[in-house]
## 1
Amino acid sequence: MPKKNSPPQEAPKPAIVREQPIAETLEVNYMPYAMSVIVSRAIPEIDGFKPSQRKLLYTMYKMGLLTGGRTKSANIVGQTMRLNPHGDGAIYETMVRLSAGNEALLAPFVDSKGNFSKVYFRDTQYAASRYTEAKLSKICEELFSDIDKDAVDFADNYDGTMKEPNLLPTAFPNILVSANMGIAVGMATNICGFNLHEVCDAAIAYIKNPKIDLLSVLPAPDFPTGGELLYDRETLRRIYETGRGSFKVQAKWRYVREQNLIEIYEIPYSATVEQIIDRIRELYKDGKVKDVSDARDESDLKGLKIAVDLKRGADPDKIMRQLMKLTPLRDSFSCNFNILIAGSPKVLGVGEILEEWTAWRTETVRRRVFSGLTKKKDKLHLLKGLGKILLDIDKAIAIIRDTEREDEVVPNLMIGFGIDEVQAEYVAEIRLRNINREYILKRTRETGDLETEIADLADIVSSKERIKQIIIDELKAVSKKFGSPRRTEIIFNAEDDDYGTEENTAEDYPVTLFVSEHGYFKKITPLSLRMSGEQKYKEDDAELLRIETSNRADIIVFTDKCQAYKAKVSDFADGKASVLGDYLPAKLGFDDGESFKYLIATADYSESILFAFANGKAARVTLDSYATKTNRKKLVAAYSDKSPLRAIIGFKEDTELAAFDNVGKALVFSTAQLSPKSSRDTQGVQVMSLRAKTEVTAVLSLSESGIDNPAGYRASNIPAAGKKFSGQLRLGG
């Protein structure tokens, strides 16, 4: 009970709640965080480093670890916290990745001692920072040689107590040499590494000729874990041009006959030993790989080794084909070359990266030379003042001796010899023992050499060509000093490599394929076809293709995004006329917004396929250009994207086709008039001559075209303009 005469208790006040519009929340709370992660953490800049990496390396440089001996990693971590306040754990993880011991980089920047684990181990932990030691590796000379020459800008650290560089003036395109990945807010980056020697050669070639084909000098990425890269020129060209795409890397292995086991000694960069072993064990326990009895890690100080025990009589080549297909022993590396350029994230191709790096490096060299020019001008200015003193040393001594106050010495020298304050200060600070004719003559003799050097440096500052030559000479020096052979072998005949393929053991029987305009697919046996009625389609859909083939045939599905998807007929269940069938975009995993265009079935890839374009060109491509033996399900650049596609027509024997334009003209031509090409994205040859603002609208087989008198429209030579069509176009036949 409340006490007598106690004041009445007040009711609790309601909490103050302020409504905040979602747009304001995003702008005030979320956007600063997102920008901080993008700009200050996750995305590397043109020097190839994220902020955390740059802060660590600069701290080690200021600690004298470029030339001195190693020190405890814990000491380095503690010193780095003056620039990086995000905690000792994150700093040490950064050091581990940059270390030679971790083997994550082709050109490691930290010379390490102790257990730094390995990039290819998932479960093995690196030792604590108090147990390991580190210093900067020799290649860091190329990062810091210009750091004190005003080559880059500096900024205050987080508490304003010291300065740090915004970028490191790398003498080579480290952004392409050092693999880097990061996840920001709403974006990510994943940059594969390239061989240092090849990158320097590519940069030199690009500086000399920006239009050079980079694939000729920079053939493919390179990884510290080695392996074999399955070379696909078109895929790599697309990555080089756009900065996006993926390629496959597979493990290296050997068969040890005496022990009846397979030794895997190099694996893809994106895989780990534990991940591979776990997957192999799952496969033989589930009975999917029957001739394997065990898999274990036998890695030691000599390097990585995974041992796979085989059962008696097992075929190691067949087993490796299975393992390559079913485990990360063959894996894809997805590229996303997202880089901060002037504070803004941009996805760049290799050529664009070299362009940005060359422009940035040109500016750093110009600033370095200008800094040296300024210092030499200042020195020349002092020596010219000293030269005036040489005319009468006794007068200078007398002026200094007869001056009563110290602060009047400099003004009196300025008056006595007609020199400025800086020169007078320099003369006044000369030690007594140096006030002799020999010393002054030695100093003033430098004047002529300095004037020559100053004129040369001034010419360099104003000459882009001379700066480019300096960059080229430095790239050659870096390549010679630090270049090393490739670690990842390039398999140029990847299309002929049979890893991942398997015999088609599907039952062989005749089938009829039905494909609708919207991309619904049905496979029907002859018996079912005889017993069925009319084929079922959606109301707004209709039959596009009817193909008689076998259950063991392959199908190639073309889309409106210049891509093709491959599958086997046996991958689809036998259907009936009364069902809609399989929806190909969903079944084959089309990209978002991608639509079905055409399907061709083949048993031996002996057919040809014709692509007709709006610009009047047509390309005849041999179907064996789409025959791959690496189990690739998706082919990019399946046909040219230079002009809108108007028709795709598959044929085994030469046939006649009819082309129609948008002003009512028709042209009949034969596929025999077109030379077959093996390049999938060829632009073809001109078939129909077109006037301005005229384009081809349709290309059909002659039987479907509605042309009753083909002789009047037939062209003996192409290109031809065609003739006015008086009939009615029968689209769809």
## 2
Amino acid sequence: MAKLTDPITILKGVGPARAKQFAALNIYTLGDLICHFPRGYEDRTRLLTIDALEVDCPACFRAMVMNNPRTNHIRKGLDITKVQVADHTGRLTLTFFNSRFASENLIYGREYIFYGAVSGDYLGYNMTNPVFEAPDAPALATRRVLPIYPLTAGLNNAAVLRTVRQALSICDPPREILPGELRQRFGILGADTAYRAIHEPKSMEEAEQARKRMIFEEFFLFSAGLSLMRQARSGRQRPAFRNLEMEDFYGSLPFTLTNAQNRAIGEILEDFRRGVPMNRLLQGDVGSGKTMVAAAAAFCAARNGCQTALMAPTEILAEQHYASLEKLFSQLGIRVGLLTGSQTQKQKRETREALAAGDIQVAVGTHALLTEATTFQNLGLVIADEQHRFGVAQRSRLAAKGSDPHLLVMSATPIPRTLSLILYGDLEVSILDELPPGREKVETFLVGESYRARINAFIRKQASEHHQCFVVCPAVEENEELGVKSAEAWAETLRGTVFPDLRVLLLHGQMKGSEKEEVMASFARGEADVLVATTVIEVGVDVPNATLMVVEDADRFGLSQLHQLRGRVGRGSAKSYCILVTHNRNAETLARLKALCKTNDGFRIAEEDLHLRGPGDFFGSRQSGLPAFRVADLSLDLATLKQAQEASAQWIARWGDSDDPEAEELRRRVGELFSRAEGTMN
């Protein structure tokens, strides 16, 4: 028998070219191939009569060939073969394009099993390129439940199915990791049965049972991994912070913190007290005051002789954090330093020397903090802002500059509470679910193209009052197939035709990093009236003077993404507005967008987005460093997730450090799962 770790090139028909195609699907070994599960199934087990076939509904039927196939050469590269088939209920014309197989293998007077979809109308019906097999031939394409696989260029479904079947014939599936007691309790198939049935089910019911097993196994492995990560973390020690007095910090603030901020700070201080490295997510809506909570943590770290590193995804955001923290901490005797890629070599050298000497207690920066040249005297706290922009590996590199420092990651992307555990893994979660008093709601409106003149007039009105406007487009360049506004073309239109007297800037993700930084900095300085951009402005820029957000083709965005975009305005004292523009008149689409107009609560919006769109918006980025699920769907399988979490916690507690073969195999599979996830990081 072959091994799961053997390369797929040992299989017949898998040479270098085919292996390269499979590599595009991250399939390199027999184990990868066997775990490449179908995305769905076609039930081809039921045979219909010709008169029962429905237009555009693929189905199987048995019929006799009524004439010799005729092939006409239309032009170079196009041959059309036609043949008539019939059963006792009617006749049907079949058409094949460039199919020598059909012309040579459909024999007059013989019966075949066909699978395809009828097209046509009362003038006549036709079926194009159906697949067919003889009734006494193996049921490969008809009379079976056919798995449909995720594919890539040059690799069709039949090739994947054929290769998977070959792998299963020479290699045992992955070993069992779910104890028999657990399988019996939840009605779950054994590993050998499930791994074979998911690829070659005898019925749709068996396919669903196999899928149920894989969903449970994925969640069980994932939950067990988180439990093992927590165990490992709880085993690490670092000196507890003894000085937890915060009166000086609170007294330096010109405002009173919200109850949510005080609660989050209390949770962080409790982590500091325990003598175990903190691993906490601070999650809060735009404007909820995460920076002040992070400042409180940095203050406590400084009072206990430790340095803090705050890493931001952009230089603009790093500079904003530096300005606010330097103003706050200068009166408390805490020195703040800034470290970014665009600084001069002298500036970077001086900052690094001060960090290494311990003269700077709080370092704010971008990826420049990660370089080998940056060292700390006593790094005790790492803060990652907009954490989804950083991978686990990047956070780990920064943490490695200290001795098991505390970790606080911040995110302004509201995540449904049901998904927090999955997306943020083994992090404890603090939620800021209220806004500071005095922050006005951003008024949001949904309009069609007929409002264009009024939108333009409103943009001009805001500019006349010395305010600024964001205009967001879903695409960078024009694309006729997408049929949406592009940032480049729309910026040109606004500059040349609509607002020739206003200052219009363009920003998109294809620009160089330094160019993007300069455009955004220019807009933040008030040197433009309108910024036309893609979603590159979704996170991390603070322009208090911006009072209007216009989102073109708003139906192309998820609710949570639209909410993030809306959060770019309303950051100053002036009344702010968000206008969603769409051509789409679909009732469901309009209902989804209207939900955004009714509330500014990011968590309610996130729950609605999960309900309407599934979890894609929350898992579009692999930057969390956590495994992607092959079969499970979080919008549908939350009940199974809960069962698997409870079951894994029970079995982890029972096994502990046991050398039981089942425990050993589980730990191996968990390590493999999370190693694969880390391997996908940038």
